[in-house]
Amino acid sequence: MQLIATLQLITLVVLMFLPVEAREPYEALLVFDRALILKGEAWRLFSYVFIPIPNLFFAFIAFMFMRFLGAGLDEGWGAFRVNLYVLGGMAALAAGALFFGFSADAMWVYLAVLFAFATLYPNEEILLFFILPVKIKWVALFSAVTVALLVFSSPVFAIPAFFALLNYLIVFTPGFVRGRLHAARVAGRRARFEGAAGDGVFFHQCKVCGKTEVDDPALQFRVNDEGDEICSVCRVKP
Hints:
This protein is mainly α. The chain folds into two domains: 2-177; 184-235, no CATH class. The protein has helices at residues 2-17, 20-28, 34-38, 44-47, 56-77, 79-100, 106-120, 136-153, 158-164, 166-198, 232-235, and strands spanning 125-128, 132-135, 221-223, 229-231. It has a two-stranded antiparallel sheet with strand order 1-2. A two-stranded antiparallel ribbon has the order 3-4. 20% of the residues are buried.
């Protein structure tokens, strides 16, 4: 991820030193073009991610942000898994663009990286424009709402959005489903325990006074050396 951001910045610097008439042909070599790809210009399947933001200031901010996200993912996943995630997302986006005819854009690749980072580190803070501290989950939420509004206003964007986030769905959906199922099982066990307690069924009983957690939920029970349960009240009695 850091490599892509670095190459984008280098590409922008190179373009700044090229004559105006030479910039457009140079950028045209990087653009995702379905017709030219089918004619054999296979590098366009991936070169579109190196097209830089035209403004140097915003390109530098994007460069720093992508390096930050990439470093965090490297720490959590390792370089191999991060590269697999990014390249897999680019491959899915390119396949969708070839099949459905839309133009692949680096924005979609970066969006999948942002969502992955925000899922792993939702409370990580960044300085927006180097001034305003914002948690990354709010940046991701704002981006998700923006994409949803874009798709709602123009449904044609639903297809590139799906292919761009396909790698995110593949990686994180199983864990999300497991988490929801685990929460449901915990809630079910808690409900059964509370129901059993309401019916007078107890799990602990004091050997001395005979009280249970049903009689007094505030009681705490400990097992003595003889293996008998003693409540917190009887333990302090002389």
